[in-house]
Amino acid sequence: MNPKIILATVNSKRDLYAATTDEFSAVAPNIQMGLLASYVKSRGIDVEIIESDVDMISMDQLLDIAQKKSPTLLGIICSGANPSSSTMVMAGIVDFFERFHQRKMNVKTFIWGPHPTVLPERSLKETGADFVVRGEGYTTIVDLFHALRDGGDLEKISGLAYCVKNGAVQEPAVIVTQDTPLIKDLDSLPPVDWDVMRPSRYRAHNWHCFGDLHHRTPYAILWTSFGCPFPCNFCSINNLFGKRTQRFRSVDRVIDEISLLVQKYKVKHIKILDELFVVNSKRIDEFCDKLEVKGFDLNMWAYSRVDTISRPLLKRLKKVGMNWISYGFESATPEILKTADKGNQKTDVDQVIRMTQEEGVSICADVMFGLEGENEETMNRTYDFLVKYNFEWANIYPVFAYPGTKFFREVEPPKNWKAYSLYGYECAPMATKYLTSKEVLKFRDEAFVRYHGRPEYLWMIEKKFGVDTKEHILRMIAIPLRRRLLENE
Predict the structure, then answer these.
(1) 171 with 191, same domain?
(2) Of 24, 328, 414, 488, which is least surrounded by CB within 10 A?
(3) Across the strands, what pairs with 49?
């Protein structure tokens, strides 16, 4: 047994992204895994990370590596570049563990991520992993390593779930230990080791690089906060943290990391990972003050609500390279937004859109079809809203009942997590009172192609970003997505 920890992702990109994998999807660094690895290393433990989905390492190849290196712990990371991806990748993790057990390997395993945090019992049962590490995981992983290496009481380790057999006949009992307190000082976390993660391996979203599609690498994702204070009932962002809260990293540490990425790794394209970056105007001013003096040529994007942005902030952000803002519009029907618990948004949406456009910041418009109370009329209203403003990009999602959300508690849990794969064959979004899952998915797929194929949209794209970008979009929307639900259409 080698006294080390291997942290790994499982490669199931073909199932998750289907025909969009090769040219159109992003190849993103797993920041959560990078942070865990840095923390474990800072505690004197030998740690190795394997991004199977980045380096296209198959499940069997990952098993070969684990079998050869025989670590004390093999940790499978159930997360991605956004909170919902944790449930998407769970299907691949279940497949991976089936192969793992067939080999009868003598390696202790755990799964970590937002999904297993809120469903520890089901995750243990589906995978047969030895442990689920719940919550942020930093101290739990370190304590678990020492307990396995030196002997120790597992029940005294916070943030852990595992099975204990009670005789030969009875089902194993699941032990869930107490929660681990959240890290109070985020600056105490060691930074991601970019020498290990290597930005040259990653690729930005296609829309993020409109006008420069041949140079989507190197690419990096940067975090400046954890969590979100808003109560949207479709969102699973706070699964990992156990409560609705937002904690911030110091701006100085953020600027230091940007400087490192630019100066050492020649990174230009950066995504801000925060679920809500533009939330505190004083902090954004400090960010812009300290970044502006660096004079970097950046192409960044981040999330904002329409009620947390202002024209002065847009001016400042654009000046330091924030070329895109992603707004979560969700729906164009106020009654539907109320059912989603988006919070009190009294802001004039039209005014926010116009001033964003006037300041030269491109908009990625996030909308959802299939929210509570949704019908065909309200979905068409949201589509018409997209057309009216002719946004540079539209992320069009169906609604899924993610674990940890209100919706998940109200529906029958799925038998297979592949149902949560937006681009996958098994995709099956949530139905509404008026629409079936099939009707929601059909509307979503057709709306995506119709919106990005409109002559007025393509003319705007060609004028702003060039003919190469227009042709890229036309190639993308020409690729049909295979859907089990829609096969007989």
Answers:
(1) no
(2) 488
(3) 7
Question: With contact defined as beta carbons under 8 Å apart, do 15 and 427 qualify?
Answer: no
Residue whose token pair is 């479709």: 234
Q: In what order do the strands lie in the sheet with 131-133?
A: 46-51, 2-9, 71-77, 108-112, 131-133, 160-164, 173-176
SS3 content of the chain, % helix, strand, coil (to 5): 45, 15, 40
Whether residues 193 and 158 fall in one domain: no
The number of CA neighbours under 13 Å toward the Cβ of 240 is 24
Counting beta carbons within 10 angstroms of the beta carbon of residue 399, is it exposed (0 to 12), middle (13 to 18) or buried (19 or more)? buried
- pLDDT score at 19: 57
* Kind and range of the H or E run holding 64: helix 59-69
Q: Which of 162, 193, 196 is nearest to 176 (CA)?
A: 162
Q: What is the pTM of this model?
A: 0.95
CA distance 189 to 97: 30
Task: Please write the tens of the pLDDT for every residue from 135-157.
Answer: 999 999 999 999 999 988 999 99
pLDDT digits (tens, 9 = 90+) for 172-207: 889 999 999 999 999 999 999 999 999 999 999 999
- On whether the CB atoms of residues 261 and 199 are closer than 8 A, the answer is yes
* Same-domain status, 195 and 112: no
- d(Cα 132, Cα 119) in Å, to the nearest integer? 9
DSSP, collapsed to helix, strand or coil, labels residue 269 as strand
CB of 337 within 8 A of CB of 331? yes
469: Cβ contacts below 8 Å, ≥ 6 apart: 210, 211, 213, 461, 462
Q: Is 273 exposed, middle or buried (0-12, 13-18, 19+ CB in 10 A)?
A: buried
Tokens representing residue 477 in the block? 């929307």
Least confident of 29-38, 86-95, 379-388, 404-413: 404-413
Range with top average pLDDT, 149-158, 250-259, 416-425: 250-259
Dihedral sign, Cα of residue 343, residue 346, residue 351, residue 352: negative
My answer on whether 300 and 254 are in the same domain is yes
Domain housing 243: 186-477
Flag whether 44 is in a domain.
yes
Alpha-helical segments (H) within 134-269: 138-150, 194-197, 251-265
* Amino acid, single-letter form, for residue 362: S
